Amino acid sequence: MKHNIEAFLNQVKQRNSHEPEFLQAVEEVAETVIPYILEHDIYRGKNILTRMVEPERLISFRVSWVDDQGKIQVNRGYRVQMNSAIGPYKGGLRFHPTVNASILKFLAFEQVFKNSLTTLPMGGGKGGSDFDPKGKSDNEIMRFCHAFMSELFRHIGPNTDVPAGDIGVGGREIGFLFGMYKKIKNEFTGVLTGKGMSWGGSLIRPEATGYGTVYFAEKMLNTKGDDFKDKNVVVSGSGNVAQYAVEKSLQLGAKVLTMSDSSGYIYDADGIDSDKLAFVMELKNVKRGRIHEYVVKYPNAEFVEGKTPWGVSCEIALPCATQNELNEADANTLLNNGCICVSEGANMPSTKEAITAFHRAKILFAPGKASNAGGVATSGLEMTQNSLRFNWTREEVDNKLKEIMCNIHDSCIKYGKEEDGYIDYVKGANIAGFVKVADAMLAQGVV
Ligand SMILES: NC(=O)C1=CN([C@@H]2O[C@H](COP(=O)(O)OP(=O)(O)OC[C@H]3O[C@@H](n4cnc5c(N)ncnc54)[C@H](OP(=O)(O)O)[C@@H]3O)[C@@H](O)[C@H]2O)C=CC1
Ligand SMILES: O=C(O)CCC(=O)C(=O)O
């Protein structure tokens, strides 16, 4: 068994030697899925995982645009179309200076499993650019988005590939991207999700990833007869996912102590209540400011520069910023401080060593592909509403989101429950995600 995993990983390493994040994501899946493949005749000898780690298509393109000084700028754009066995490619666009093929392939690979877990008919993809939105004017953002879509449009479509937001891409960017797609194609279709409410968006989509992450954590806690009430929660990030993870934690009666951005974190021992959260939302979504401005408004809180918040004592940790933001030392600190539950809002925020520490301590740990699947699931619901040309109410969408998160939790138990009763959510999510995609690939033959 060990030999099969090593041989497989060596082959993937040879082909993708300069892609550490992609290799990290593949390794985590291989370690849990290869044993399952070897135990099941229908999957053995079909090279399914070898096919799944090779993107069906990886598009890279030049994005030229003019900045406010009249200078011509050039960025690189990408779309990784990873797997379309169970539906059109689906996954976000990330605008961040660190974006490269490795990051987008890891995200697209994770997306295949995540989308399968939602039970909705969506394949996996991801895209973006090394464009840095920080400090850019609205007009620069618009010109960049229009230039990006002037190439991307030929590779996507409502039945082909449906992008959405991710880091650096929110409602504003989706609007500009949609506007250019509509102009070039002369059609009004559900080609993107995360759209505004007056032009095809779904209620609850902005909230869905953060809410879903908390719904999943609550389900995990329920297996121990526990819940969010009166728990101390530490959150990283202050963007879309973090904001709504904080909101839902507060609604469930928890006390949220931290939020962060790439400059550091704020620690508010009195708790970030709903008024303080409204301030953060205005600061981040409208003023596009930095998290340290929180302590100017709320001087009882402190700002810790250049650090992540994992040293703050808590029962529940919600990493909602970025990949590999929580390492082994952080995991041990969280465990020593009494943390009992980690639910990933971000994609792959915990390193492999951190996950091993959580598993060894047998605490509740949910990998992002299960716990943050509420975002893409609600994108799937947006696609359904677009096809129906009908909008569901806030309550209807929220109930469907809860049901989907509940089903994902059940799938993780089905494939991840161990003999001693401990639930390995990593194993559960990987195998459950794999089975549906693998069955579809087998049915469709070698294509
Ligand atoms: N939006 C969605 O629906 C979904 C998002 N996700 C994942 O959730 C995570 C957050 O995404 P989202 O909230 O949408 O993105 P946003 O752009 O809205 O927010 C990102 C947040 O993370 C921080 N951050 C980004 N990069 C780093 C870094 N290198 N170090 C420290 N902090 C960093 C940002 O700080 P700063 O402003 O300083 O850069 C910001 O606070 C990502 O991993 C994304 O892939 C997963 C599922 C769905
Ligand atoms: O809503 C979507 O399609 C994308 C969400 C996403 O990028 C993710 O799940 O990581």
From TrEMBL:
- State what protein this is by name: Glutamate dehydrogenase
Sample GO molecular function, one term: nucleotide binding
Pfam families this protein is in?
ELFV_dehydrog (PF00208), ELFV_dehydrog_N (PF02812)
Q: Does the keyword Transit peptide apply?
A: no
This protein's UniProt keywords = NAD, Nucleotide-binding, Oxidoreductase
**Gene Ontology biological-process annotations:** glutamate biosynthetic process
Binding of substrate occurs at 90, 111, 114, 165, 379
What organism is listed for this UniProt entry?
Hwangdonia lutea
> Per its UniProt record, what PROSITE patterns does this chain match?
GLFV_DEHYDROGENASE
Q: Where is coiled-coil annotated? A: none
Record's NCBIfam families?
PRK09414.1
Q: Which InterPro entries match?
A: Aminoacid_DH-like_N_sf, Glu/Leu/Phe/Val/Trp_DH, Glu/Leu/Phe/Val/Trp_DH_C, Glu/Leu/Phe/Val/Trp_DH_dimer, Glu/Leu/Phe/Val_DH_AS, Glu_DH, Glu_Leu_Phe_Val_DH, NAD(P)-bd_dom_sf
One GO cellular component term of this record is:
cytosol
By sequence similarity, the record places it as follows: Belongs to the Glu/Leu/Phe/Val dehydrogenases family.
Site location (Important for catalysis):
166
Q: Active site: which residues?
A: 126
SMART domains (UniProt xref): ELFV_dehydrog
Q: Which Gene3D superfamilies match?
A: Glutamate Dehydrogenase, chain A, domain 3, Leucine Dehydrogenase, chain A, domain 1, NAD(P)-binding Rossmann-like Domain
User: Where do the Glutamate/phenylalanine/leucine/valine/L-tryptophan dehydrogenase C-terminal domain residues begin and end?
Assistant: 202-445
